[in-house]
Amino acid sequence: MENKQMLMIPGPTPVPESVLLSMAKSPIGHRSGDFSKVMEECTSLLKWLHQTESDVLMLTTSGTGAMEAGMINFLNQGDRVLVGVNGKFGERWGEMAQMFGMEVEIINAEWGKPLDTEVFREKLEGDKNKEIKGVIVTHSETSTGVLNDLETINKYVKAHGECLIIVDAVTSLGAVNIPIDEWGLDVVGSGSQKGYMIPPGLGFVACSKKAWKAYETAKIPRSYLDLMPYKKSAAKNTTPFTPPVNLIFGLQTALRMMKAEGLESIFARHQRLTAATRAACKSLGLPLFAPDDAASTAVTAVAPTNVDAEEVRGVMKKHFDIALAGGQDHLTGKIFRMGHLGFVCDRDILAAISSLECTLQKLGVEGITPGSGIAAAAKVLAES
Amino acid sequence: MENKQMLMIPGPTPVPESVLLSMAKSPIGHRSGDFSKVMEECTSLLKWLHQTESDVLMLTTSGTGAMEAGMINFLNQGDRVLVGVNGKFGERWGEMAQMFGMEVEIINAEWGKPLDTEVFREKLEGDKNKEIKGVIVTHSETSTGVLNDLETINKYVKAHGECLIIVDAVTSLGAVNIPIDEWGLDVVGSGSQKGYMIPPGLGFVACSKKAWKAYETAKIPRSYLDLMPYKKSAAKNTTPFTPPVNLIFGLQTALRMMKAEGLESIFARHQRLTAATRAACKSLGLPLFAPDDAASTAVTAVAPTNVDAEEVRGVMKKHFDIALAGGQDHLTGKIFRMGHLGFVCDRDILAAISSLECTLQKLGVEGITPGSGIAAAAKVLAES
């Protein structure tokens, strides 16, 4: 049906009506006092969301632009960096670091499996001359639904003492606890079309004091993505370049909603939706691509063996107006991904799972017990 | 009055209600067939607007990001480049080119005066060894309301034969004729919050075949702002990174409106509004900062001698709900700027001029004939 689509991809995520309506307001001048007030509130709420007293800067970019800024402002050409790669986004950061002339050491894991934290420990403990300048980790690997063990990897980075940890939190921020200051994370990048519940177009970079220290000796040429002008402007509740005023109106509304819900409730909700989705898939005999102990709370990837993943997506879209994501690169056609990130409630999961059950029946998948998926999901939701 | 503000700054410009409502639609997946159709239409209409058969690429950036992409993809470190500087934006491109290690030669003109095309001719004709690789020109200098003579400067660039012309058309695109293919302009950068009639958040870069030839030897490290992935993706009606879906919904609506109005009508309207504004200011004894033969059709800067520019802005805002822009850098407090770019009609100019007249009366400015400003504006509008 027209205008009836339910977005269950891992971004863009569903946007609350109140946010959409905020964005439909006429723009105001970005150098006005009224806009400064909006910036002030957003900056304060962004710090709350990021659990940090340090800077959270707002860029007119996608999440990829934010991650590039997070690298080139704090690392140098020739710097030895470890990049965890177990999916498409980790791969992208490795290529990006290479493009900027860093000496990149890829720490691979199979797509669908979490990064082995022990490899990071060995490399970091073995680096007696402190040559490793950065560790780049994708927290929630959107392409596979794997949540990497950021807390443990970060402990080894802290024990190393010298190098920075640069985190792709694009689909984990607002979906799982990332206490930036408590853990001492240095650079955390994210994008608006994910846990923030607003459309794409804004990138965010949180930067620690240690990162700013590294900035002083960072020499990669940069201008639009140079973070210092953003930091200086943010201190005056403004921006160095014209910001996307209407998206920021949306951000203000969305952050207020998040604040009202509270961080713990937000994280618990994502946990609950993930558990319900996974329980349902198991009951329906649908193999999950990521293991239980490394499950992203943003997206669940399913690797069906007795039905074509693309056919599932097709029926879900055509008959139930639900958009699921497919696999990327070599996973194309092998998995489908169900997003449960941001503005998603329990009812949405029940609707999606019951539609999935019906889809499997339409496709003539054998051996499933009708109602078993929704029963499993409902049990999780009822008990949590 | 709340929600009654009339934006007369040179960006963000007023946004049509239909565009605002397009942006308030729920986002759809950026990798979906439905979104590809939107991209296809936008790309086609962007080429129409730019009067080019070559590429017009869409980036999630401000206009500054688009201009950076326009430089670093086609020029190299050490390249000799001429940068015209007669205002804040020209100055920015000079600093940016320097940041990326280019050998920058600034061609200055007084702020408020147009660039001297003869200096470009001399430099380019004198460059027998073809060392000049780029000429960077701000077409409409937003900070002063001066329209530089792009056509003439470009003729000297064409006569030189080797170097590229890189144009900041941020406030001229859609406000004055820029026949990109006919003139053979190489790189033309712009931003959404100007003639496009949509909020900020999208940058555009038009690139000629000659520019793509230069791309092959361009070595400045870049990733998010590397234009080749945008070109390749655009050919498939998609984007390399998540695009600002809702802004692109707005863009689609705005470009349809522009197509319906027609390029000639759009340019004639901007010409008419500019002429009316300038005639009114002259009648009111308000000195215009830019000369008549170099007047931007996007913004008119006024340098009042018998009243404080900031007081004028204050009364216009407080009593008439009209936002004017102030002066930047050393022009702060010395000029005010009245935007008439994008979604602005004849009635808006009459409202603004009559409010300005009333403002001058409130401020006790002597020697003005009440009604003379609006009479002069009305005459222009009635006769054109």
UniProtKB/TrEMBL annotation, chains A, B:
Binding residues for substrate: 337
Top-level taxonomy: Bacteria, Bacillati, Cyanobacteriota, Cyanophyceae, Oscillatoriophycideae
Keyword Transmembrane helix part of the UniProt annotation: no
Cofactors required: pyridoxal 5'-phosphate
PTM-bearing positions, type N6-(pyridoxal phosphate)lysine: 194
Keywords, comma-separated and alphabetical: Aminotransferase, Pyridoxal phosphate, Transferase
Top-level taxon in the UniProt lineage: Bacteria
UniProt cross-references to Gene3D superfamilies, sorted A to Z: Aspartate Aminotransferase, domain 1 (3.90.1150.10), Type I PLP-dependent aspartate aminotransferase-like (Major domain) (3.40.640.10)
Domain Aminotransferase class V: 25-328
Single Gene Ontology BP annotation: glycine biosynthetic process, by transamination of glyoxylate
Pfam families reported in the protein's UniProt record: Aminotran_5 (PF00266)
Similarity comment text for this entry: Belongs to the class-V pyridoxal-phosphate-dependent aminotransferase family.
Cytoplasm among keywords: no
Name recorded for this polypeptide: Alanine--glyoxylate aminotransferase family protein
Organism: Gomphosphaeria aponina SAG 52.96 = DSM 107014
GO molecular function: alanine-glyoxylate transaminase activity; L-serine-pyruvate transaminase activity
